[in-house]
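Q: We require from you a single protein entry containing the residue sequence and its fold in token form, and nothing else.
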Amino acid sequence: MNKDARTRLRAFVDESKAKDSLLVSVALEVSAVQDARDAVRSLILPGQSRLHMRKESDRRRRSIVNALAVPTISTTVIRAPKDGRTDRERRSACIDALVRAAVSDGIDRICFEIDETQQRQDRQRIVETLHRLRPLTVEHRHERASNEPLLALPDAVGWAWAKGGDRRRRCGPVRVTEV
């Protein structure tokens, strides 16, 4: 991880609930953010407001995963298996681990894909976790994927990770934490 104080890092986070609960974070240097946004926007077809792997054909999914191989600092998958905990408990554990990893990696801003049903609990959990890690702070926001194209990066990784096999390997190095 690049922890140089001069390097500003941004993380983009999405979830997958296909099997286990996954929170996927893709971190980029600020200097790479605009080029990455342009790369994602170039893949959006006429009539689409965003890229979303669930809505793409298998052929297009492969080409999207290959095209989204942008220079990232880190890709992290936080996995909470279905083990008797409620969905909320598993999501809270994932958020705790993700925020701790972000602080450790020197990420100064996290953008979560908005889930309006969980946004309030997410914000509360993020603030509580950051409070325990004081004096470190990380800015965070929730955004719609149609407004933040880079949310397509963790969406693609989450889809590939959940599918496994060659799709997972195409994601490149991924740090996995189980909670």
Q: What stands out?
A: The longest helix spans residues 87-105.
